[in-house]
């Protein structure tokens, strides 16, 4: 029941973006906006496992990068995108399953999880970086080391390799996938699975005592997050028809965390807002060419942790409450306060 | 036989390097439960401090063994006062904030020194073992690692500071009740950890050269070592460094350095799956 409002809002916003923006914006601006949308999907994947599962994965870029590499290699081998698209989601999900098994069934605590996932990402970076040379190829695809993989076949209409999707249409596709990811995760959170997940974020021991195997739930959430990140990576490889080891870089891993933290942990809307805001900020400041982008990102990260740990969405929500209490009818507001108390940690709301 | 000796020396070198890069982290993490993701950048700054000092005409041994640890130790003190102390008990937030610090430092150093590798010529010559040439500096690194471990052992077990620090480590509020100021101990401990990271950076600079992003290579290895080692600072670091350094170096001998790193990680993940508390969580329990 409670899900209808956000899902409806998401549908409305997504449809508006698809219908209106291509009319007004030039292809270049639209392409730039497409990256924002693609990265929002990545932010959403971390927002889901961190904000609702309590799993702070520092290496979400690993799944993103694996998705883009898996797509690139599969698409070059298959010559069309339908099968490659599936591979790009399945490979990172399976990788998340294997890695998550060791992490969750080893009962490794949250902190170590962050360190291990980060290490895995850095090692994937080194590994892909050192594969220049002709002997490193999978099927017909050369991995290319630090040069990356150029001229990847881009998305075509499923089952019909001759119909390549144009940049304008690709924007629509990406917004569609973002909407699908958002709605899918929102429905998942409303289900029994989502409730158990949030419960174990709050108190893992109690959930275990109630007879749930929290390890399996965490692992499942981790795998879903990996799959969604893989989808994002697949779209990213499509966007420039190119992928390179930078998808596994420290900056990429840091960015995902910063997006979610800036937007607000514990929401699904926050990661999307944070992603758009930070990307806009970095491209704006980067264009000015005064400060090093890493310096800026670091300062943003420290600032938000120390001063605004709940992110932008909490600020917006607070402003929203102040505005409604100012302009809304006093008695209605008063009544609402008593009938629906806010969840203590801002948990499932949003 | 000669070849075997060379392999042994290289393995010892790998172990000593791991000890050096992870001991500062082990102290900060083991005593304060603070995860310092900027540890790699502390090492990086140590390298830059040594190189800058020796360019200014300071004797290279003084630059490596004194300037680096002191500079980074002071820097660590500032960091603890400005950022870390607001986040005690919030492990995740500490991790996030220090990661922000790490990015900030990478950006800062890139702005100052540019994005190229700066080198420092290795101060010692080489020696011959049979038909092989081995850099004497390798032996020096092993000696420094032994000296650091020995010095810390004495510091933690034979001095008042060591006693108090171990007390705070076991129960901060109880020590506070006994009249110790945990905030001061934390501050000193963090600076000590930073100084050791700086020492590692200075000592390793002649071998690897330094770039602003070099910390990334160290932070992963040092964390894996500290996690693998478990609760005891010295015993854990030594045990995990020995295990991972050996695996890393032997795989490197058989294939490439990158595969060596992968081997290290695989062994570490399997080890943590079997011993979630680290090596010293199961064995050597209760040592320093």
UniProtKB/TrEMBL annotation, chain A:
<protein>
    <submittedName>
        <fullName>Branched-chain amino acid ABC transporter permease</fullName>
    </submittedName>
</protein>
<feature type="transmembrane region" description="Helical">
    <location>
        <begin position="111"/>
        <end position="128"/>
    </location>
</feature>
<dbReference type="GO" id="GO:0005886">
    <property type="term" value="C:plasma membrane"/>
</dbReference>
<feature type="transmembrane region" description="Helical">
    <location>
        <begin position="83"/>
        <end position="104"/>
    </location>
</feature>
<feature type="region of interest" description="Disordered">
    <location>
        <begin position="329"/>
        <end position="350"/>
    </location>
</feature>
<feature type="transmembrane region" description="Helical">
    <location>
        <begin position="169"/>
        <end position="189"/>
    </location>
</feature>
<feature type="transmembrane region" description="Helical">
    <location>
        <begin position="219"/>
        <end position="242"/>
    </location>
</feature>
<keyword id="KW-0472">Membrane</keyword>
<dbReference type="GO" id="GO:0015658">
    <property type="term" value="F:branched-chain amino acid transmembrane transporter activity"/>
</dbReference>
<feature type="transmembrane region" description="Helical">
    <location>
        <begin position="290"/>
        <end position="309"/>
    </location>
</feature>
<dbReference type="Pfam" id="PF02653">
    <property type="entry name" value="BPD_transp_2"/>
</dbReference>
<keyword id="KW-0812">Transmembrane</keyword>
<feature type="transmembrane region" description="Helical">
    <location>
        <begin position="37"/>
        <end position="63"/>
    </location>
</feature>
<feature type="transmembrane region" description="Helical">
    <location>
        <begin position="254"/>
        <end position="278"/>
    </location>
</feature>
<dbReference type="InterPro" id="IPR043428">
    <property type="entry name" value="LivM-like"/>
</dbReference>
<feature type="transmembrane region" description="Helical">
    <location>
        <begin position="6"/>
        <end position="25"/>
    </location>
</feature>
<keyword id="KW-1003">Cell membrane</keyword>
<keyword id="KW-1133">Transmembrane helix</keyword>
<dbReference type="InterPro" id="IPR001851">
    <property type="entry name" value="ABC_transp_permease"/>
</dbReference>
TrEMBL record, chain B:
<keyword id="KW-0472">Membrane</keyword>
<dbReference type="Pfam" id="PF02653">
    <property type="entry name" value="BPD_transp_2"/>
</dbReference>
<dbReference type="GO" id="GO:0005886">
    <property type="term" value="C:plasma membrane"/>
</dbReference>
<feature type="transmembrane region" description="Helical">
    <location>
        <begin position="96"/>
        <end position="114"/>
    </location>
</feature>
<keyword id="KW-0813">Transport</keyword>
<feature type="transmembrane region" description="Helical">
    <location>
        <begin position="60"/>
        <end position="84"/>
    </location>
</feature>
<dbReference type="GO" id="GO:0006865">
    <property type="term" value="P:amino acid transport"/>
</dbReference>
<keyword id="KW-1133">Transmembrane helix</keyword>
<dbReference type="InterPro" id="IPR001851">
    <property type="entry name" value="ABC_transp_permease"/>
</dbReference>
<feature type="transmembrane region" description="Helical">
    <location>
        <begin position="223"/>
        <end position="247"/>
    </location>
</feature>
<keyword id="KW-0812">Transmembrane</keyword>
<feature type="transmembrane region" description="Helical">
    <location>
        <begin position="186"/>
        <end position="211"/>
    </location>
</feature>
<dbReference type="InterPro" id="IPR052157">
    <property type="entry name" value="BCAA_transport_permease"/>
</dbReference>
<keyword id="KW-1003">Cell membrane</keyword>
<dbReference type="GO" id="GO:0022857">
    <property type="term" value="F:transmembrane transporter activity"/>
</dbReference>
<feature type="transmembrane region" description="Helical">
    <location>
        <begin position="134"/>
        <end position="156"/>
    </location>
</feature>
<feature type="transmembrane region" description="Helical">
    <location>
        <begin position="253"/>
        <end position="275"/>
    </location>
</feature>
<feature type="transmembrane region" description="Helical">
    <location>
        <begin position="12"/>
        <end position="30"/>
    </location>
</feature>
<comment type="similarity">
    <text>Belongs to the binding-protein-dependent transport system permease family. LivHM subfamily.</text>
</comment>
<keyword id="KW-0029">Amino-acid transport</keyword>
<protein>
    <submittedName>
        <fullName>Branched-chain amino acid ABC transporter permease</fullName>
    </submittedName>
</protein>
């Amino acid at each position: 029941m409670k899900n209808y409002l956000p899902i409806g809002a998401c549908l409305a916003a997504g449809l508006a973006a698809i219908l209106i923006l291509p009319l007004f914006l030039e292809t270049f601006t639209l392409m730039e906006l497409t990256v924002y949308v693609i990265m929002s999907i990545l932010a959403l994947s971390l927002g889901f496992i961190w904000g609702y599962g309590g799993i702070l994965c520092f290496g979400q870029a690993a799944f993103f990068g694996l998705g883009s590499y898996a797509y690139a290699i599969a698409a070059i081998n298959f010559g069309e995108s339908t099968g490659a698209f599936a591979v790009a989601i399945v490979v990172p999900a399976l990788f998340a399953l294997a890695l998550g098994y060791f992490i969750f069934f080893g009962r490794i605590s949250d902190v170590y999880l962050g360190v291990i996932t980060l290490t895995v990402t850095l090692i994937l970076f080194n590994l892909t970086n050192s594969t220049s040379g002709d002997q490193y190829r999978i099927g017909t695809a050369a991995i290319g080391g630090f040069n990356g993989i150029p001229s990847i076949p881009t998305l075509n209409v499923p089952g019909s390799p001759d119909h390549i999707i144009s940049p304008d249409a690709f924007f629509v596709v990406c917004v569609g996938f973002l909407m699908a990811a958002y709605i899918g995760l929102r429905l998942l959170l409303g289900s029994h699975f989502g409730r158990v997940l949030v419960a174990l974020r709050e108190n893992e021991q109690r959930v275990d005592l109630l007879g749930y195997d929290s390890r399996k739930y965490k692992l499942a959430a981790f795998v879903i997050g990996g799959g969604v990140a893989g989808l994002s990576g697949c779209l990213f490889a499509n966007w420039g028809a190119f992928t390179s080891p930078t998808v596994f870089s420290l900056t990429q891993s840091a960015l995902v965390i910063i997006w979610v933290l800036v937007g607000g942990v514990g929401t699904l809307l926050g990661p999307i807002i944070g992603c758009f805001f930070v990307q806009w900020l970095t491209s704006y400041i980067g264009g000015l060419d005064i400060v090093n982008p890493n310096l800026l990102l670091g300062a943003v990260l420290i600032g938000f942790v120390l001063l605004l740990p709940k992110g932008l969405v909490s600020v917006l929500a607070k402003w929203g409450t102040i505005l409604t209490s100012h302009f809304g009818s006093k008695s209605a507001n008063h009544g609402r306060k008593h009938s629906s108390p806010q969840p203590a940690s801002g948990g499932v709301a949003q | 036989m000669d070849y075997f000796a060379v392999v042994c020396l290289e393995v010892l070198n790998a172990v000593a390097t791991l000890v050096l890069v992870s001991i500062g982290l082990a102290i900060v993490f083991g005593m304060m439960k603070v995860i310092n993701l900027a540890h790699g950048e502390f090492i990086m700054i140590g390298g830059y401090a040594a190189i800058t000092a020796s360019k200014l005409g300071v004797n290279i041994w003084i630059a490596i063994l004194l300037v680096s640890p002191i500079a980074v130790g002071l820097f660590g003190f500032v960091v603890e006062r400005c950022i870390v102390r607001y986040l005690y008990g919030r492990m995740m937030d500490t991790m996030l904030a220090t990661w922000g610090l790490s990015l900030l430092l990478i950006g800062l150093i890139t702005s100052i020194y540019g994005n190229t590798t700066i080198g420092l010529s290795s101060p010692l010559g080489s020696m011959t073992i049979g038909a092989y040439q081995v850099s004497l500096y390798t032996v020096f690194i092993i000696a420094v690692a032994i000296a650091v471990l020995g010095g810390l052992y004495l510091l933690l077990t034979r001095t008042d500071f060591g006693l108090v620090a171990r007390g705070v480590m076991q129960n901060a509020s109880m020590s506070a009740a006994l009249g110790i100021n945990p905030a001061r101990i934390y501050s000193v401990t963090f600076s000590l950890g930073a100084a050791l990271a700086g020492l590692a950076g200075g000592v390793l600079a002649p071998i690897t050269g330094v770039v602003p992003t070099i910390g990334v290579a160290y932070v992963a290895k040092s964390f894996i070592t500290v996690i693998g080692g478990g609760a005891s600072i010295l015993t854990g670091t030594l045990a995990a460094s020995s295990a991972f350094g050996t695996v890393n170096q032997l795989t490197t001998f058989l294939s490439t350095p990158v595969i060596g790193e992968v081997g290290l990680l695989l062994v570490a993940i399997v080890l943590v799956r079997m011993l979630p508390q680290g090596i010293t969580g199961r064995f050597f329990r209760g040592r320093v």
